[in-house]
Amino acid sequence: MAEPMTEAGPVALRTSPLAHLEERMRAAAVPGARGVTLTERPFLTMVNLRVGPGSEAADRIEHTLGARLPRRCGDTTSAGPHTVVWLGPDEWLVLSSAEGAVLTAELRAALGPAPGSAVDVSANRTTLELSGPSSRQVLEKGCPLDLHPRALGPGRAVSTTVGPVAVLLWQVDDAPTYRLFPRSSFADYLGRWLIDAMEEFRGPEVP
Q1: Which of 46, 154, 53 is nearest to 94 (CA)?
Q2: What confidence tens digit (pLDDT) does each residue in 117-128 have?
Q3: CATH superfamily, with its number, for domain 19-42+126-201
């Protein structure tokens, strides 16, 4: 099939790392009280941000985002289209539905001459969303963290592994819904691992 054309020439079509598993993920969905679903949410903007916490540059960046930079491991803050995830004492990941180049330029302008960086890493990872009453049990098959609500709840995001794959794991709400951010090169493995882990819940519900 010919590529779409514009006056400037052919347009490159974006293909997500898990486009080839879309049908399998849809077929793996489990309805009902034991339900769990798996979907990819591709092309989310991700900007890696480094700046001195508490600095004037950090204040300018917080003003640009409309959200404070979280200060503790596991914390996140959100405002409008942006969610900011703590990665380290002076490092954060900004997740956003805003256009990546625009957001990165705005953060670099806010950073100014201060030490630090704002780098668009959107192509480095993809986003898997696992949701439903059984989603925690699916993750517990291969995640070493304590995922019980007493330890991990809505708004928390931590670096961990699921199976052998390193991910950033964010619990979005108490459905529960989780978003997993693997490196794009490991997304296929993780997607297949999760599909296999979901199979158990397709059996008859226990009264």
Answers
A1: 46
A2: 999 999 999 999
A3: Probable tRNA modification gtpase trme; domain 1 (3.30.1360.120)
CA distances from 90 to 73, 115, 117 (A): 11, 11, 10
Residue span(s) of the chain under CATH 3.30.70.1520 come to: 45-123
Question: Which helix (H) or strand (E) is 118 found in, with range?
Answer: strand 116-120
pTM of the model: 0.89
Reported as type and span, the H/E element at residue 106 is: helix 100-111
Strand 9-10 with 82-88, pairing: unpaired
Using DSSP, how many helices (H) and how many strands (E) does the chain show?
A: 5, 12
Helix (H) / strand (E) element for 109: namely helix 100-111
Q: Report the C-alpha gap between 183 and 83 in whole angstroms.
A: 19
Of 113, 110, 76, 105, whose CA–CA distance to 92 is shortest? 76
CATH number (1.10.3720.10, 3.30.70.1520, 3.40.50.1110, 3.20.20.140) of 45-123 reads 3.30.70.1520
What pLDDT, in 10s, does the model give residues 21-66? 999 999 999 998 889 999 999 999 999 999 999 999 999 999 999 9
